[in-house]
Write a structure and sequence with these properties.
Jelly Rolls; mainly beta; eleven-stranded mixed sheet; 4% helix; seven-stranded antiparallel sheet; 321 residues
């Protein structure tokens, strides 16, 4: 039980939890039609009255899996004027830079141009899903999307809200990429990382470092360890909590979910990954890093900023070693 709400939570709940019956009632918002968004414009995908919890969100369009890079997904909780999720649409689902790769993980997956999110998103008053266009041309495509949610008065007392942030280091400064740097109370649940490197040998010698409430700790001694492998990445793979789904022409894409081991913090959290290669030992690098971080926080006071279209789509400045 959480906070006497009557809602039972089980982290990493599997099929064994399906028999549990709650006071919730299922509902859905589904649409299929042409969506046209001018440069600088927005379209509201859904405006759902609470209290409730989003349980599933999918979206696709007729671009053969290549969402326009100027599309930005914004999610607003409970009447807030600023979004708690503010990220390029394709990158939210792990198609970094519009590169669609089929994969399957517990919270997210892409199957034949269908982009799916299973992350639970509780809200008390209202959930607004908005699609913006900050690109350089009009967006106009036939699109389909759906949002499953359950309505339950008990969620009025749940304060946790999903947040998502996109960041790019092009190239990294001081051989470090900051994935997340936030104040408040909550827990980090992981996300996606894309690394473009011109180094022809092992590029991923960097450690992942957490600063939890001011305490510094090295979480894993190497990029491959953090994303579910050891002794470099020998192949691509896609598993429930970790995956390495792209290894081509210097592009490396991976994900890691802390579902059973969320990184909990009470005051602040900073997540960094070192940018190092192996060249007669650990050697500082300056590659091009893009990350999409997901976390839950018990307030929505701070806006989640997003770099502009020009910065997001700028040619890589990764160093040629």
């Amino acid at each position: 039980m959480v906070g006497g709400t009557g809602i039972e939570f089980c982290e990493a709940a599997g099929i064994e939890q399906l028999y549990k019956i709650s006071n919730g009632v299922f509902d859905n918002h589904t649409e299929y039609h042409k969506i046209t968004i001018p440069i600088g414009g927005e379209v509201e995908l859904a405006n759902i009255k609470g209290p409730g919890k989003i349980t599933y969100f999918y979206i696709t369009d007729d671009s053969s899996g290549q969402f326009y890079k100027g599309l930005v997904l914004k999610i607003f909780w409970d009447g807030q004027k600023h979004p708690s999720v503010n990220v390029p649409l394709s990158d939210f689902f792990g198609a970094i830079g519009g590169k669609t790769i089929d994969y399957e993980s517990m919270p997210m997956q892409i199957n034949h141009f269908c982009y799916m999110c299973y992350l639970p998103m509780p809200f008390s008053k209202r959930a607004r899903f908005v699609l913006g266009n900050d690109g350089e041309r009009e967006y106009s495509q036939n699109a389909a999307y759906g949002i499953d949610y359950e309505k339950d008065k008990a969620y009025a007392n749940i304060k946790s809200r999903l947040h998502c942030r996109w960041k790019r280091s092009n190239p990294t400064e001081k051989s470090v990429h900051t994935i997340l740097d936030i104040q408040g109370r909550g827990h980090y649940i992981g996300g996606f990382l894309h690394v473009f490197s011109k180094y022809k040998s092992w590029w991923g010698e960097g450690d992942t470092i957490f600063h939890v409430d001011g305490k510094k700790m090295t979480h894993t001694p190497g990029t491959e360890d953090e994303y579910g492998a050891c002794w470099s990445f020998g192949k691509t793979y896609s598993y429930m909590y970790s995956g390495y789904i792209q290894m081509e022409n210097g592009h490396n894409q991976m994900y890691r979910w802390y579902v059973t081991n969320p990184v909990r913090f009470q005051n602040s959290l900073n997540v960094e990954i070192q940018n190092q290669r192996w060249e007669k030992g650990q050697t500082p690098s300056r590659d091009d890093y893009i990350s999409v971080a997901f976390w839950y926080q018990d307030d929505c006071k701070q806006a989640v900023e997003l770099a502009g279209y020009g910065e997001r789509t700028a040619p890589s400045k990764a160093i040629d070693y």
